[in-house]
Amino acid sequence: MSLLLLVGADVVKGALAQQTGGDSWLPPPVVFSFGWVTYSFSGILAAVGDKTFLPAPELPAVVMSTEWGYHRTNNSWVINRLLRDYEDYWMPRQVKGRLTQMLAEAGVRRRRRAGLCVSVFEASSEKKAGVPDRDLLWYSGYVVAALQLAIAAIPWALYGVWQEFAVTALGTALAFLTASLQHWTQERWACNKNSNKTFVLTRGNGAQHAIVIIGAGRGLDLEDLATSSEGLPGKRSTPIIYSGLAVLWCVLLITVCGIENQTWFLLAVGTIGMIHTIIIAGAPRKPGLFGIHLTYKDVFAQPKVMKTLQELEKSYPGCGRSMIKTFFPGIYGKMSNY
Protein backbone atom coordinates (compact mmCIF):
# COMPACT_ATOMS: atom_id res chain seq x y z
CA MET A 1 0.00 0.00 0.00
CA SER A 2 2.80 2.46 0.85
CA LEU A 3 4.51 1.77 -2.49
CA LEU A 4 1.24 2.11 -4.42
CA LEU A 5 0.68 5.57 -2.95
CA LEU A 6 3.66 6.70 -5.03
CA VAL A 7 2.29 5.35 -8.35
CA GLY A 8 -0.22 7.08 -10.64
CA ALA A 9 0.31 10.81 -10.17
CA ASP A 10 -0.64 11.55 -13.80
CA VAL A 11 -3.99 9.81 -13.32
CA VAL A 12 -4.69 11.89 -10.22
CA LYS A 13 -3.84 15.05 -12.14
CA GLY A 14 -6.23 14.08 -14.93
CA ALA A 15 -9.05 13.42 -12.45
CA LEU A 16 -8.45 16.79 -10.79
CA ALA A 17 -8.64 18.50 -14.18
CA GLN A 18 -11.99 16.81 -14.90
CA GLN A 19 -13.71 17.39 -11.56
CA THR A 20 -12.47 20.77 -10.36
CA GLY A 21 -13.57 24.33 -11.06
CA GLY A 22 -16.73 26.28 -10.46
CA ASP A 23 -18.25 28.22 -7.59
CA SER A 24 -20.32 25.46 -5.98
CA TRP A 25 -20.27 25.23 -2.18
CA LEU A 26 -19.71 21.48 -2.54
CA PRO A 27 -16.05 20.37 -2.64
CA PRO A 28 -15.12 18.74 -5.95
CA PRO A 29 -15.25 14.96 -5.34
CA VAL A 30 -11.82 13.62 -6.27
CA VAL A 31 -11.42 10.48 -4.16
CA PHE A 32 -8.49 9.11 -2.16
CA SER A 33 -6.44 6.73 -4.32
CA PHE A 34 -2.93 5.70 -5.22
CA GLY A 35 -0.65 8.41 -6.60
CA TRP A 36 -1.56 11.29 -4.30
CA VAL A 37 1.78 11.46 -2.49
CA THR A 38 3.74 11.85 -5.72
CA TYR A 39 1.21 14.32 -7.09
CA SER A 40 1.56 16.54 -4.02
CA PHE A 41 5.23 17.12 -4.83
CA SER A 42 4.54 17.75 -8.51
CA GLY A 43 1.99 20.33 -7.33
CA ILE A 44 4.75 22.19 -5.48
CA LEU A 45 6.80 22.23 -8.68
CA ALA A 46 3.87 23.69 -10.63
CA ALA A 47 3.17 26.27 -7.92
CA VAL A 48 6.71 27.66 -7.92
CA GLY A 49 7.27 27.09 -11.66
CA ASP A 50 4.97 27.81 -14.60
CA LYS A 51 1.78 27.99 -12.45
CA THR A 52 0.14 25.41 -14.74
CA PHE A 53 -1.78 22.72 -12.88
CA LEU A 54 -3.98 21.34 -15.66
CA PRO A 55 -2.47 18.59 -17.86
CA ALA A 56 -0.91 19.49 -21.19
CA PRO A 57 -3.14 19.07 -24.28
CA GLU A 58 -3.09 15.53 -25.63
CA LEU A 59 -3.74 16.41 -29.28
CA PRO A 60 -2.58 19.23 -31.56
CA ALA A 61 -5.24 21.84 -32.31
CA VAL A 62 -5.63 25.28 -33.84
CA VAL A 63 -7.88 28.12 -32.66
CA MET A 64 -8.74 30.75 -35.27
CA SER A 65 -10.39 34.13 -34.86
CA THR A 66 -12.57 35.06 -37.81
CA GLU A 67 -12.38 38.74 -36.83
CA TRP A 68 -8.63 39.17 -37.30
CA GLY A 69 -7.67 35.89 -38.94
CA TYR A 70 -5.14 35.00 -36.24
CA HIS A 71 -4.26 31.33 -35.81
CA ARG A 72 -3.25 30.18 -32.34
CA THR A 73 -1.72 26.86 -31.40
CA ASN A 74 -3.86 25.53 -28.60
CA ASN A 75 -2.31 25.16 -25.14
CA SER A 76 -5.58 24.79 -23.25
CA TRP A 77 -6.55 21.42 -21.81
CA VAL A 78 -10.22 22.47 -21.86
CA ILE A 79 -10.23 23.19 -25.60
CA ASN A 80 -8.30 19.97 -26.19
CA ARG A 81 -10.99 17.91 -24.43
CA LEU A 82 -13.68 19.81 -26.33
CA LEU A 83 -12.22 18.59 -29.64
CA ARG A 84 -11.22 15.13 -28.40
CA ASP A 85 -14.73 14.19 -27.29
CA TYR A 86 -16.63 15.86 -30.13
CA GLU A 87 -16.89 13.17 -32.78
CA ASP A 88 -17.56 10.22 -30.49
CA TYR A 89 -19.58 11.82 -27.71
CA TRP A 90 -21.31 15.17 -28.12
CA MET A 91 -21.68 15.66 -31.88
CA PRO A 92 -25.30 16.70 -32.66
CA ARG A 93 -27.42 14.18 -34.55
CA GLN A 94 -27.88 16.69 -37.39
CA VAL A 95 -24.12 16.74 -37.93
CA LYS A 96 -23.90 12.95 -37.78
CA GLY A 97 -26.62 12.64 -40.39
CA ARG A 98 -25.02 15.14 -42.76
CA LEU A 99 -21.57 13.58 -42.26
CA THR A 100 -22.88 10.11 -43.15
CA GLN A 101 -24.57 11.53 -46.24
CA MET A 102 -21.41 13.37 -47.29
CA LEU A 103 -19.23 10.28 -46.91
CA ALA A 104 -21.68 8.35 -49.08
CA GLU A 105 -21.47 11.08 -51.72
CA ALA A 106 -17.67 10.86 -51.66
CA GLY A 107 -17.71 7.27 -52.95
CA VAL A 108 -16.78 3.81 -51.79
CA ARG A 109 -13.09 4.56 -51.36
CA ARG A 110 -13.73 7.38 -48.91
CA ARG A 111 -16.15 5.82 -46.45
CA ARG A 112 -14.18 6.78 -43.34
CA ARG A 113 -12.92 10.28 -44.10
CA ALA A 114 -13.54 12.77 -46.88
CA GLY A 115 -13.81 16.50 -47.41
CA LEU A 116 -14.56 18.72 -44.43
CA CYS A 117 -17.49 18.91 -42.00
CA VAL A 118 -18.01 22.27 -40.30
CA SER A 119 -20.55 22.52 -37.48
CA VAL A 120 -21.70 25.91 -36.23
CA PHE A 121 -22.64 26.64 -32.61
CA GLU A 122 -23.55 29.75 -30.65
CA ALA A 123 -22.86 30.51 -27.00
CA SER A 124 -25.96 29.61 -25.02
CA SER A 125 -28.18 32.41 -23.74
CA GLU A 126 -29.61 30.18 -20.99
CA LYS A 127 -26.44 29.41 -19.04
CA LYS A 128 -23.50 31.53 -17.95
CA ALA A 129 -20.14 30.82 -19.56
CA GLY A 130 -17.51 29.64 -17.12
CA VAL A 131 -20.03 28.01 -14.78
CA PRO A 132 -19.88 24.24 -15.34
CA ASP A 133 -22.74 21.76 -15.32
CA ARG A 134 -22.61 18.70 -13.09
CA ASP A 135 -23.35 15.17 -14.29
CA LEU A 136 -23.76 11.79 -12.60
CA LEU A 137 -20.08 11.03 -13.12
CA TRP A 138 -19.16 14.13 -11.13
CA TYR A 139 -21.48 13.23 -8.23
CA SER A 140 -20.26 9.63 -8.27
CA GLY A 141 -17.15 10.84 -6.43
CA TYR A 142 -19.21 11.33 -3.29
CA VAL A 143 -20.66 7.83 -3.58
CA VAL A 144 -17.21 6.26 -3.99
CA ALA A 145 -15.79 8.29 -1.09
CA ALA A 146 -18.64 7.09 1.14
CA LEU A 147 -18.03 3.50 0.01
CA GLN A 148 -14.34 3.81 0.86
CA LEU A 149 -15.11 5.09 4.36
CA ALA A 150 -17.61 2.27 4.87
CA ILE A 151 -15.03 -0.37 3.88
CA ALA A 152 -12.39 1.23 6.12
CA ALA A 153 -14.84 1.16 9.04
CA ILE A 154 -15.30 -2.63 8.84
CA PRO A 155 -12.09 -3.59 10.72
CA TRP A 156 -12.89 -0.90 13.30
CA ALA A 157 -16.34 -2.39 13.89
CA LEU A 158 -15.25 -6.03 13.86
CA TYR A 159 -11.77 -6.02 15.37
CA GLY A 160 -11.36 -2.62 17.00
CA VAL A 161 -8.65 -1.62 14.48
CA TRP A 162 -9.32 2.03 13.65
CA GLN A 163 -6.14 2.99 11.77
CA GLU A 164 -7.57 2.08 8.34
CA PHE A 165 -10.55 4.38 8.86
CA ALA A 166 -8.30 7.21 10.09
CA VAL A 167 -6.03 6.91 7.04
CA THR A 168 -9.00 6.82 4.64
CA ALA A 169 -10.70 9.79 6.30
CA LEU A 170 -7.50 11.85 6.24
CA GLY A 171 -6.74 10.89 2.62
CA THR A 172 -10.27 11.80 1.54
CA ALA A 173 -10.09 15.15 3.35
CA LEU A 174 -6.74 15.99 1.74
CA ALA A 175 -8.00 15.00 -1.71
CA PHE A 176 -11.13 17.14 -1.37
CA LEU A 177 -9.08 20.04 -0.01
CA THR A 178 -6.66 19.91 -2.95
CA ALA A 179 -9.53 19.83 -5.44
CA SER A 180 -11.16 22.85 -3.74
CA LEU A 181 -8.22 25.22 -4.29
CA GLN A 182 -9.14 28.33 -6.24
CA HIS A 183 -6.37 28.02 -8.83
CA TRP A 184 -8.30 25.27 -10.66
CA THR A 185 -11.11 27.69 -11.47
CA GLN A 186 -8.68 30.45 -12.43
CA GLU A 187 -6.72 28.25 -14.83
CA ARG A 188 -9.72 26.54 -16.41
CA TRP A 189 -11.26 29.84 -17.50
CA ALA A 190 -8.23 32.15 -17.65
CA CYS A 191 -9.71 34.26 -20.43
CA ASN A 192 -12.00 37.17 -21.15
CA LYS A 193 -15.73 36.52 -21.01
CA ASN A 194 -18.79 37.90 -22.81
CA SER A 195 -16.92 37.76 -26.11
CA ASN A 196 -18.48 38.90 -29.41
CA LYS A 197 -15.84 37.08 -31.46
CA THR A 198 -16.38 34.03 -33.64
CA PHE A 199 -13.87 31.21 -33.33
CA VAL A 200 -12.97 28.13 -35.31
CA LEU A 201 -11.55 25.05 -33.58
CA THR A 202 -9.92 22.24 -35.54
CA ARG A 203 -7.10 19.72 -35.30
CA GLY A 204 -5.48 21.21 -38.37
CA ASN A 205 -4.97 20.48 -42.05
CA GLY A 206 -6.46 17.12 -42.97
CA ALA A 207 -8.94 17.05 -40.08
CA GLN A 208 -12.45 15.80 -40.76
CA HIS A 209 -14.13 18.34 -38.50
CA ALA A 210 -14.01 22.03 -37.69
CA ILE A 211 -16.16 23.67 -35.03
CA VAL A 212 -17.34 27.27 -35.36
CA ILE A 213 -18.38 28.93 -32.08
CA ILE A 214 -20.13 32.31 -32.17
CA GLY A 215 -19.56 34.26 -28.96
CA ALA A 216 -22.63 36.51 -29.37
CA GLY A 217 -21.52 38.70 -26.48
CA ARG A 218 -21.86 35.95 -23.88
CA GLY A 219 -19.24 33.31 -24.67
CA LEU A 220 -15.66 32.75 -23.58
CA ASP A 221 -12.79 34.25 -25.56
CA LEU A 222 -11.36 30.94 -26.80
CA GLU A 223 -8.47 32.66 -28.56
CA ASP A 224 -7.43 34.08 -25.22
CA LEU A 225 -7.98 30.74 -23.49
CA ALA A 226 -5.81 28.89 -26.03
CA THR A 227 -2.73 30.85 -24.93
CA SER A 228 -3.69 31.63 -21.33
CA SER A 229 -1.25 29.11 -19.82
CA GLU A 230 1.69 31.24 -20.99
CA GLY A 231 1.07 33.98 -18.44
CA LEU A 232 -1.05 32.76 -15.58
CA PRO A 233 -0.75 34.85 -12.42
CA GLY A 234 0.07 32.83 -9.35
CA LYS A 235 -0.86 33.50 -5.75
CA ARG A 236 1.95 33.62 -3.23
CA SER A 237 -0.01 31.37 -0.92
CA THR A 238 -0.27 28.49 -3.43
CA PRO A 239 3.31 27.14 -2.95
CA ILE A 240 2.84 27.33 0.82
CA ILE A 241 -0.48 25.46 0.63
CA TYR A 242 0.98 22.73 -1.58
CA SER A 243 4.00 22.40 0.70
CA GLY A 244 1.70 21.89 3.66
CA LEU A 245 -0.33 19.33 1.73
CA ALA A 246 2.85 17.48 0.76
CA VAL A 247 3.86 17.26 4.42
CA LEU A 248 0.46 15.87 5.36
CA TRP A 249 0.59 13.32 2.55
CA CYS A 250 4.02 12.22 3.78
CA VAL A 251 2.59 11.83 7.29
CA LEU A 252 -0.14 9.67 5.77
CA LEU A 253 2.46 7.59 3.93
CA ILE A 254 4.45 7.02 7.14
CA THR A 255 1.25 6.06 8.96
CA VAL A 256 0.40 3.51 6.28
CA CYS A 257 3.88 2.00 6.63
CA GLY A 258 3.20 1.40 10.32
CA ILE A 259 -0.12 -0.42 9.88
CA GLU A 260 0.27 -4.19 10.31
CA ASN A 261 -3.25 -5.53 10.90
CA GLN A 262 -6.19 -5.82 8.47
CA THR A 263 -4.28 -4.04 5.70
CA TRP A 264 -6.37 -5.73 3.01
CA PHE A 265 -9.20 -3.33 3.78
CA LEU A 266 -6.92 -0.37 3.13
CA LEU A 267 -5.73 -1.97 -0.10
CA ALA A 268 -9.36 -2.37 -1.17
CA VAL A 269 -9.99 1.30 -0.42
CA GLY A 270 -7.05 2.39 -2.57
CA THR A 271 -7.96 0.03 -5.41
CA ILE A 272 -11.55 1.27 -5.57
CA GLY A 273 -10.28 4.84 -5.52
CA MET A 274 -7.79 4.20 -8.31
CA ILE A 275 -10.41 2.55 -10.54
CA HIS A 276 -12.73 5.51 -10.09
CA THR A 277 -9.88 7.97 -10.66
CA ILE A 278 -8.90 6.26 -13.93
CA ILE A 279 -12.51 6.34 -15.15
CA ILE A 280 -12.87 10.02 -14.27
CA ALA A 281 -9.53 11.04 -15.83
CA GLY A 282 -10.32 9.50 -19.21
CA ALA A 283 -14.09 9.88 -19.42
CA PRO A 284 -15.55 11.93 -22.30
CA ARG A 285 -17.56 14.94 -21.18
CA LYS A 286 -19.91 17.41 -22.83
CA PRO A 287 -18.87 21.08 -23.26
CA GLY A 288 -21.21 22.20 -20.49
CA LEU A 289 -19.10 20.27 -17.97
CA PHE A 290 -16.22 22.60 -18.90
CA GLY A 291 -18.32 25.75 -18.61
CA ILE A 292 -18.72 26.13 -22.39
CA HIS A 293 -22.46 26.10 -23.09
CA LEU A 294 -23.36 25.82 -26.77
CA THR A 295 -26.49 25.87 -28.92
CA TYR A 296 -26.38 24.09 -32.28
CA LYS A 297 -27.11 26.24 -35.35
CA ASP A 298 -25.93 24.72 -38.65
CA VAL A 299 -23.68 22.23 -40.46
CA PHE A 300 -21.76 22.39 -43.73
CA ALA A 301 -20.18 19.31 -45.29
CA GLN A 302 -18.99 18.61 -48.82
CA PRO A 303 -16.60 15.97 -50.25
CA LYS A 304 -14.38 18.85 -51.39
CA VAL A 305 -12.89 21.02 -48.65
CA MET A 306 -12.98 24.23 -50.71
CA LYS A 307 -16.67 23.70 -51.51
CA THR A 308 -17.41 23.43 -47.78
CA LEU A 309 -15.52 26.65 -47.05
CA GLN A 310 -17.34 28.47 -49.85
CA GLU A 311 -20.76 27.47 -48.54
CA LEU A 312 -19.71 28.42 -44.99
CA GLU A 313 -18.47 31.83 -46.14
CA LYS A 314 -21.79 32.62 -47.83
CA SER A 315 -23.77 32.00 -44.65
CA TYR A 316 -21.19 33.20 -42.11
CA PRO A 317 -18.90 35.80 -43.70
CA GLY A 318 -15.31 35.55 -42.51
CA CYS A 319 -15.50 31.97 -41.26
CA GLY A 320 -14.58 30.23 -44.49
CA ARG A 321 -11.92 32.79 -45.37
CA SER A 322 -10.21 32.46 -41.98
CA MET A 323 -9.77 28.70 -42.50
CA ILE A 324 -7.96 28.92 -45.85
CA LYS A 325 -4.59 29.44 -44.16
CA THR A 326 -4.93 26.11 -42.35
CA PHE A 327 -6.52 23.92 -45.01
CA PHE A 328 -4.91 25.52 -48.08
CA PRO A 329 -1.57 26.99 -46.94
CA GLY A 330 -0.24 27.10 -50.52
CA ILE A 331 -3.15 29.17 -51.79
CA TYR A 332 -2.97 31.44 -48.75
CA GLY A 333 0.73 32.07 -49.41
CA LYS A 334 -0.02 33.16 -52.96
CA MET A 335 -2.91 35.36 -51.81
CA SER A 336 -0.70 37.10 -49.24
CA ASN A 337 1.74 38.16 -51.97
CA TYR A 338 -0.86 40.37 -53.59
From TrEMBL:
<keyword id="KW-1133">Transmembrane helix</keyword>
<feature type="transmembrane region" description="Helical">
    <location>
        <begin position="240"/>
        <end position="259"/>
    </location>
</feature>
<keyword id="KW-0732">Signal</keyword>
<feature type="transmembrane region" description="Helical">
    <location>
        <begin position="27"/>
        <end position="48"/>
    </location>
</feature>
<keyword id="KW-0472">Membrane</keyword>
<keyword id="KW-0812">Transmembrane</keyword>
<feature type="transmembrane region" description="Helical">
    <location>
        <begin position="265"/>
        <end position="283"/>
    </location>
</feature>
<feature type="signal peptide">
    <location>
        <begin position="1"/>
        <end position="17"/>
    </location>
</feature>
<feature type="transmembrane region" description="Helical">
    <location>
        <begin position="136"/>
        <end position="159"/>
    </location>
</feature>
<protein>
    <submittedName>
        <fullName>Uncharacterized protein</fullName>
    </submittedName>
</protein>
